[in-house]
Design brief:
binds NADP nicotinamide-adenine-dinucleotide phosphate; 12 helices; six-stranded mixed beta sheet; 430 residues
Length: 430
């Protein structure tokens, strides 16, 4: 057996606690797989007195997490505190500078500072692993960095936020509205007290920026991701989607287009007969289309102590085995400068839900707005009659360009029969 691999773990919350538990339970197996004993020698968190549900009597407590990077007894730094700035950033930078391999679950850090950190990793010849930062227990970074190395990836999409998927699934299954289901998710611990990061799509955008970098060999660029969350979705949309043969999912999509690399996070209509339409509850899924392998889908738990610790443990085993790979699959000097595709050039079909006053000629006015923007209509659903009352009007368009939809909507909102801002949801023919 080679010398033991000594870990310094910063952060003992859901993931850190989960990792310590996993190491206690699977320690022997991990040693068998990597040929080295793996032990936690030092830990850091904010509150020393908090009961973590794991035995910390044999590990050293360090008040300043950044000190783990300088600790002579620590070989590998495991950063599980979170946050795109210090102390997480300072710890990761100091560890790499001290030539200590780093494992992190921190998507915000990688999404905002990925390229600079990758350069640091290269400069010091020290590996950085971040499997747990995207899709929890699904080994998607490993799949992209290693398993897909023989492919040109043309598109990648997925459900990357369990909280949003839980909310959308529960709304559909129970017929309850967004606010009600969100409150329940918070009570069950599936959603944070401040749910903005999840429901506004930011968490998903962080993950997409990371996946796009590894899949397409481009610099991580969170600024290039177009983001829209699920806050404004109504039960009506979910019901109409059902009726039309779709499910609404918050998708993260990265795709090569003639106008550059498209990176989008927003609610989508996905056909009911696709596998991703049936990824429900807190589950995540990622679909990758590779030039040689074709379509591959991975599904699993995207969060929680066990699944996330599973991904962190895999990274630790890689380090114990001496695996060292370029952070984003290619050396930073070779990252491709693909232009970002402007959203107005996005091509696809759309679902539009309007609330209009039931009055003769309304449909003709809406149709004219679409015709003048050169958008053609595939189908219309108009339900019930209530003269002079607001009623829903749903339209499905043929494939068009987003700029044309924007023009048509601008016309529609000016009609005095249109009583509320329209809801626009892209349809993805996956
Ligand atoms: N939860 C998941 O399912 C999941 C999934 C994938 C990725 N991640 C990522 O994993 C990371 C950790 O998430 P988590 O859910 O485990 O978070 P968490 O439960 O809030 O735990 C965070 C831990 O970091 C410690 N910490 C925070 N700020 C600190 C500071 N300034 N100095 C020292 N310690 C500090 C906290 O200390 P105290 O306990 O003393 O307060 C706590 O132990 C994040 O990057 C997150 O995005 C989480």
């Amino acid at each position: 057996l080679s010398a033991a691999l000594r870990l310094g773990v910063a952060g003992l919350g859901t993931v850190g606690g989960g990792l310590l538990k996993l190491l206690a339970e699977q320690g022997k197996a991990l040693t068998g797989r990597s040929g080295r004993k793996i032990s936690v020698v030092a830990v850091a968190a904010r509150d020393r007195k908090k009961d973590r549900g794991v035995d910390l009597s044999k590990v050293r407590w360090v008040d300043d997490p950044v000190a783990l990077a300088r600790d002579p007894e620590v070989d590998v730094v495991v950063e599980l505190m979170g946050g795109s700035e210090d102390p997480a950033k300072a710890l990761v930078e100091a560890a790499l500078a001290a030539r200590k391999p780093v494992v992190t679950a921190n998507k915000a850090l990688i999404a905002h500072h990925g390229v600079a950190i990758a350069k640091l990793s290269e400069r010091h010849g020290t590996p950085l692993h971040f499997e747990a930062s995207v899709a929890g227990g699904i080994p998607i970074i490993k799949a992209l960095r290693e398993g897909f190395a023989g492919n040109r990836v043309d598109s990648l999409y997925g459900i990357l936020n369990g909280t949003c998927n839980y909310i959308l699934t529960t709304m559909r299954e129970t017929g309850r509205d967004f606010a009600d289901v969100l409150a329940e998710a918070q009570k069950l611990g599936y959603a944070e007290a401040d749910p903005g990061f999840d429901i506004d799509g930011i968490d998903t955008a962080h993950k997409l920026a990371i996946l796009a970098s590894v899949a397409f060999g481009v610099p991580v660029n969170i600024g290039a991701v177009h983001v829209d969350g699920i806050r404004n979705l109504s039960l009506d949309d979910i019901r109409f989607a059902d009726e039309l043969g779709y499910r609404i999912k918050l998708l993260a999509i990265a795709r090569r287009t003639p106008h550059g690399l498209e990176q989008r996070v927003h609610p989508c209509m996905v056909p009911n007969n696709t596998p991703i339409a049936h990824v429900n509850g807190v589950f995540n899924a990622v679909v990758v289309e590779g030039s040689s392998v074709g379509r591959v889908m991975l599904e699993g738990r995207g969060a929680g102590a066990g699944p996330t610790a599973s991904a962190v443990a895999a990274d630790i085993v890689d380090i114990a085995r001496g695996v060292s790979l370029p952070v984003f699959g290619v050396p930073t000097a070779n990252l491709a400068r693909l232009p970002a595709a402007p959203t107005r050039r996005h091509q696809g079909a759309y679902y539009i839900r309007l609330v209009v006053l039931d009055r003769p000629g309304v449909l003709a006015d809406i149709a004219a707005a679409l015709r003048d923007a050169k958008v053609s209509i595939e189908s219309v659903i108009q339900r019930g009659r209530a003269p002079e009352e607001p009623v829903p009007l749903v339209l499905i368009t043929h494939d068009t360009e987003e700029a044309r939809m924007t023009r048509a909507l601008e016309r529609m909102v000016k009609l005095d029969t249109v009583t509320r801002p329209p809801t626009l949801i892209p349809i993805e023919q996956l």
